[in-house]
Amino acid sequence: MTPILETKYVFTVTARIGDVVTAGETGIGVRRIIPIIGGEVTGAIAGKVLPFGADFQTIRPNELIDLEAKYAFETDDGAVVYVENKGMRFGPVDLLQKLKRGEPVDPKLIYFRTVPRFETGHEKYRWLMEHIFVGSAARHADRVVIDVHQVV
After folding, report:
1. What Gene3D superfamilies would the database entry show (predicted)?
2. CA distance 83 to 71
3. Is residue 1 included in any domain, yes or no?
């Protein structure tokens, strides 16, 4: 018998974002780059999102958005944690277009899930590299909020 798949909430990443840069239609969709300019980490891990990195997105013709963010955060006790967070965002086309314009949309109406992976040399946080995590996220005009859950 296999172990039961469960998750537990661990921490929240709030990544502040800058202006969207668009590379245009690439043949597989519209490529967008969204700079990550700071933010904070709260919960079982506390710290700040470092002011570099970006979310590299492809918006498919049906408005499904593939996301791949690369950034880092520094914990309050000085550990630097590198993050690669892949995921997808999808929902009704009119609501996705409102989000693209920076207009508010109820996060419950948009499917926005991610799979973050972490790297760090700091012994206290090595457990981040030894587990699978999933994120439930919400996009706002100036930030993305991700609740990170550990798969146990």
Report:
1. 2.40.160.20
2. 5
3. no
